[in-house]
Design goal:
By secondary structure, the chain is of the alpha+beta class. Helices cover 35% and strands 18% of the residues.
Length: 463
């Protein structure tokens, strides 16, 4: 729908949050004609919107969704994608809802307000209140770590200077249920920051099983049974990925990025953020020979395979999702799926991931031999000078820039993302030495354990 000024936009967002989400576009008139926004006024409009939506005196609970600038037909628009929220929001103390007849102020209609609260709490288990959980049941060291993480994302983030209680309240991890009168820390708080014994007491079935199954297909080759908070669960799952999956060399806009980390950051964040935690099904992350499978209990909004070009993202645990976004471990709802598809196609040699929506949500990421040339000497003909592609040329150029400062063999091999030492020596290092593109720091002792290599770009006398 189109927006009509800051006040109308805020009210629209409130009713969308209180209902099933929606879309708002500023710069379109009531007939759907594109009028645009004055480009000079755009920064102030965005600033006013963000300030208003983050002001708990204006909107409670506050919102943390940023408007997106869109150019259509040469005109500037502001687009806001509004997910359904797991809380009931108020604007200037009023509660707005929507039915087929339009927007309704239901503040003074107890039955309508009660229905909103009942629907939210029955739909989003992360809001379940545990009135006997105290601050000391949460990990103060983890809260301090959260402060450092948000400062790394935004040095001026308000959580950085808040007390523990203020931070937890701002993150909506402490809530008051106006229907039942209960107040306290919610399930999301316990999962994100709780001590392990508290988590297990509240959810005895809670765990995430990381499994490597390549040789012993009946059981496993390696395993990590993870039963801790979601922040450290993320750390351990990413460490399991780094231990068992390759990270091939890849340049994006002249910068080396980790395809592996970009892909599995999305997979793991999805497992932890959108899981239905009151379901006893244990989440699994399984690395196999030709694929990685992640699966977790789900509250489905449909069934079947998700099409990234035509899908509507639904927040399963909005409080947890927002927390992960603030600490830099998740993107805006929906963008992660597009990134997952884009990077997986590169990582797997063109194959798409599969995202399957159902009572069990499943992500399948293909891992093909094309993604791991460093582990398959049979692939070396593809790397010979005769078959050097533009991508290979870019890799060598990046390597030579990296070696302007002398580097050891291990450092260069890790930079290239290659695990096979013999392949690296025969196909990368020796040809570059022969061509004079890499030089020895100890030329009189080529096999010295202290040997390092530097680029000819560093040597102004080299032709």
């Amino acid at each position: 729908m189109q927006g009509s000024g800051e006040q109308g936009c805020v009210r629209d967002r409130l009713r969308f949050l209180n209902r099933s989400g929606g879309h708002i576009v500023l710069g379109v008139d009531d007939n759907g004609n594109i009028t645009g926004i004055d480009a000079d006024a755009l920064p102030q409009i965005k600033k006013d919107l963000v300030t208003t939506l983050n002001n708990s005196q204006k909107v409670n609970p506050p919102l943390y969704i940023l408007p997106e600038t869109v150019i259509i037909e040469g005109k500037t628009l502001l687009y806001l994608s509004i997910p359904e929220s797991s809380q009931v929001h108020r604007c200037n103390g009023k509660i707005y809802d929507r039915n087929e007849d339009g927007d309704l102020d239901v503040t003074n209609h107890p039955d309508a307000v009660a229905h909103l609260y009942i629907r939210k709490h029955s739909s989003f288990s992360e809001n379940r209140i545990y009135p006997y959980v105290r601050l000391e049941d949460l990990r103060s060291d983890l809260i301090q770590r959260v402060r450092k993480m948000v400062r790394a994302e935004n040095p001026n983030h308000p959580w950085g200077t808040m007390t523990d209680e203020e931070l937890l309240s701002s993150a909506r991890l402490y809530q008051h249920d106006y229907q039942t009168g209960k107040e306290g820390y919610i399930l999301a708080a316990i999962l994100l920051l709780g001590k392990d014994e508290v988590i297990q007491s509240v959810l005895p079935h809670f765990k995430t099983d990381a499994i490597l199954r390549k040789i012993n297909l009946d059981r496993y080759d390696d395993r990590d049974d993870i039963r801790t908070n979601l922040i450290e669960s993320y750390d351990r799952l990413m460490a399991f990925v780094a231990k068992h999956l390759p990270d091939p060399f890849y340049l994006e806009k002249d910068q080396r990025i980790s395809l592996r980390d970009h892909i599995f950051r999305e997979v793991i964040a999805n497992m932890l953020i959108h899981r239905e935690y009151i379901n006893g099904f244990p989440a699994k992350f399984i690395i196999e020979n030709n694929q990685v499978v992640a699966e977790n209990a789900n509250r489905p909004h449909g069934h079947g395979r998700i099409n990234p070009s035509n899908f509507t993202p639904y927040p399963k645990n909005p409080v947890i999702a927002r927390f992960f976004k603030e600490i830099g471990r998740a993107d805006e709802l929906g963008s992660g799926v597009r990134n997952l598809y884009n990077y997986t196609r590169i990582y797997s040699g063109g194959a798409d991931p599969q995202l399957l929506e159902g009572d069990i949500f499943k992500i399948i990421v293909p891992v093909t031999p094309q993604a791991t040339p460093q582990a398959t000497p049979q692939a070396t003909p593809q790397a010979t000078p005769q078959a050097t592609s533009e991508n290979e040329t870019n890799k060598i150029a990046a390597l030579l820039e990296y070696c302007i400062e002398p580097r050891s063999r291990v450092e260069i091999q890790e930079f290239m993302g290659l695990k096979d030492r013999e392949y690296f020596r025969l196909e990368i290092l020796n040809p570059l030495l022969k061509e004079g593109k890499l030089l020895l720091t100890i030329p009189e002792k080529p096999t010295s354990p202290n040997q390092k290599y530097y680029s000819h770009l560093k040597d102004p006398n080299h032709v």
